[in-house]
């Protein structure tokens, strides 16, 4: 079922040889464009119709009433509540440490630049919920936004017919636990458009964050600029770099764990060991068949986006996983910590046999909203920084400006923008000497 890709003996950029094409969001842009346009033009009316079409639910209104959040929390299973509470506390402890203090640099006597970290004003947080419920994604979105000090935050998640057209009750309960009371029952590309353009019931947001399927990720790429976005956190990916010290049962379990998210999920093993490759194939066959979502897992593992990649040695493997830039990268080698320290491109790195991705999904304290599709080469996962902007505040006195005047004048002249120099000269003349 899972294919082998033999990169042994090949040099050069491995990107073209790696499996990924199936999850390229650019192929879906034309499909989400009319959806987003419809929301821009017709607002709530379009949201209601699109929800009926894609989610099979006729919404009486797009906003979830406050009473539904309270009753979801009241009915929440105590074990799930305790687990969510633990997840919230661990995530909060990590994200609280990410907060940056403002810094003031005295560039010259009388001249300072302060970097002031200002939270985004209003954010829309996407919580997936088409095939499954993702209350853990409520935690991963809301905690960093709260720690950053975002004043206005709204959550949206697809409605589910079996819950009377509301998002999954555990998702609603997680919102209630975190004190979020603005929640919408809208999913997919139309939800991203709702935050980008606003609609009658939902005020437009400055930024939308959160994971989702290919439609959600495509809408984020399409509307970037109309609205700020975080990473393109699309269909899940796991890459495992392993040698023959790795336990094949652990490797296979982790590949299956992420394949159960989506038929487009990518599970990739990179190894120099043909022996491990063979054992993992056997484990996969057994596990994939025994798992609850076996059809989805089988489709994901046999898809063009998944594979077992054979490499010459672990150095070659490191080059390959860096080129692939997976959302999640597990390192299961004899020297796992050293190898992990050398990784440059991954959404998150999981080191050694006891740090599986599914720990990070729920309860490591790290964030699970991570870049996919190779975007880990330039974009980080969700964090407090995602919701903050560093604003430079410049304050020079007359003497400091006078000292800088000749440099401004010279650069302004070099760029043929003399009015720039004149704006300084109007205050202090063109000279170098200090204050009046
Ligand atoms: N990268 C990350 O950080 C991360 C984290 C968690 C989950 N995920 C991913 O989130 C996704 C969850 O997917 P999901 O589908 O369960 O929920 P989802 O909420 O992402 O998507 C469901 C929505 O998709 C829309 N949709 C369905 N079929 C459509 C079609 N043919 N055309 C247009 N729109 C359509 C519907 O409106 C529906 O509400 C998975 O791909 C999973 O791997 C990613
Ligand atoms: N693995 C997902 C990130 O791609 C996150 C998640 C949520 N729930 C379970 N897993
Ligand atoms: Zn997961």
TrEMBL record:
Residues that bind substrate: 236, 258, 261, 328, 361, 415, 420
Pfam families reported in the protein's UniProt record: Histidinol_dh (PF00815)
Binding-site residues for Zn(2+), renumbered to this chain: 258, 261, 361, 420
PROSITE patterns the UniProt entry points to: HISOL_DEHYDROGENASE (PS00611)
E.C. number: 1.1.1.23
Positions with a binding annotation for NAD(+): 126, 190, 213
Known catalytic reactions: L-histidinol + 2 NAD(+) + H2O = L-histidine + 2 NADH + 3 H(+)
Cofactor comment text: Binds 1 zinc ion per subunit.
Official protein name in the record: Histidinol dehydrogenase
């Amino acid at each position: 079922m899972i294919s082998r890709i033999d990169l042994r003996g090949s040099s050069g950029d491995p990107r073209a040889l790696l499996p990924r094409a199936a999850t390229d969001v650019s192929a879906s842009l034309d499909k989400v464009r009319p959806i987003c346009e419809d929301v821009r033009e017709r607002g709530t009316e379009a949201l209601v119709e699109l929800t009926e079409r894609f989610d099979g639910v006729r919404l009486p209104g797009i906003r979830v009433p406050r009473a539904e959040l309270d009753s979801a929390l009241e009915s929440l299973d105590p074990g799930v509540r305790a687990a969510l509470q633990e997840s919230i506390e661990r995530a909060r402890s990590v994200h609280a440490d990410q907060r940056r203090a403002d810094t003031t640099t005295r560039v010259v006597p009388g001249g300072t630049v302060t970097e002031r970290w200002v939270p985004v004003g209003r954010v829309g947080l996407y919580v997936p919920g088409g095939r499954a419920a993702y209350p853990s994604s409520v935690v991963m979105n809301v905690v960093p936004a709260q720690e950053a000090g975002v004043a206005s935050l709204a959550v949206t998640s697809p409605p589910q017919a079996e819950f009377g057209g509301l998002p999954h009750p555990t998702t609603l309960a997680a919102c209630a636990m975190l004190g979020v009371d603005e929640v919408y029952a809208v999913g997919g590309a139309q939800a991203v458009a709702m935050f980008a353009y606003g609609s009658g019931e939902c005020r437009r947001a400055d930024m939308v964050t959160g994971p989702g399927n290919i439609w959600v990720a495509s809408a984020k790429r399409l509307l970037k600029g109309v609205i700020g976005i975080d990473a393109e956190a699309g269909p899940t990916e796991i890459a495992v770099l392993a040698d023959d010290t790795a336990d094949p049962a652990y490797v296979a379990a982790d590949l299956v764990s992420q394949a159960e998210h989506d038929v487009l999920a990518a599970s990739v093993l990179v190894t120099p060991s043909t022996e491990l490759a063979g054992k993992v194939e056997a484990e996969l066959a057994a596990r994939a068949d025994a798992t609850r979502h076996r059809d989805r897992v089988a489709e994901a593992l046999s898809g063009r986006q998944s594979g077992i990649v054979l490499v010459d040695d672990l150095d070659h493997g490191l080059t390959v996983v860096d080129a692939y830039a997976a959302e999640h990268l597990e390192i299961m080698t004899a020297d796992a910590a050293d190898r992990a320290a050398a990784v440059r491109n991954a959404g998150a790195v999981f080191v050694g046999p006891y740090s599986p991705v599914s720990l990070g999904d729920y309860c490591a304290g790290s964030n699970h909203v991570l870049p996919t599709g190779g975007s880990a080469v330039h974009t980080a996962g969700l964090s407090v920084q995602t919701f903050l902007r560093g604003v430079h505040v410049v304050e020079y006195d007359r003497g400091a400006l006078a000292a800088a005047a000749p440099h401004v004048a010279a650069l302004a002249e070099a760029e043929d923008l003399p009015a720039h120099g004149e704006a300084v000269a109007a205050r202090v003349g063109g000279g170098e000497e200090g204050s009046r």
